[in-house]
User: What shape does this take?
Amino acid sequence: MNRLSIDVTCEVEWPLDPPNADPQAFVERVLEAAAERIGVRGEVSVLLVDDGAIHELNRTYRQVDRPTDVLSFPMNEGVALADPDDVDPILGDIVVSVDRAHEQAGAYGHSLAREMAFLLVHGFLHLNGFDHEDEAGEREMFGLQEEILLGIGLARS
Assistant: This one.
């Protein structure tokens, strides 16, 4: 049984080849693993865009005039999530720049699939109240990210 209802919109050409050629299946595999690990369920929307689109969103919603790799828009920021036995809560939206993912995968020397998954997990954890504003939060969040990625076979190169 899926823990998440995931709507994926891909506004760019999907860059991954088999076995990750289907954006919906790829995003579901990654986010289901993250949801299972942190014990949440709910609804998530994912938008895959280019640098121009994420730049505009970053400028509009964060007042930062440059592209970024991932943005998260939690639906219930600062509000306790619904009881897990109740109807699935709407967790929010994740926006990933495929252009940034390409660039960062090359810079970090790992696969594009790994970078895309990293950004999805990072955004998903933000939707669920995790942050990296201080050293302890960063250790926890980045440790969870690595654990989730290792669990789906996407280790650092």
About this structure: The helical segments are 23-38, 51-62, 98-108, 112-127, 135-151.
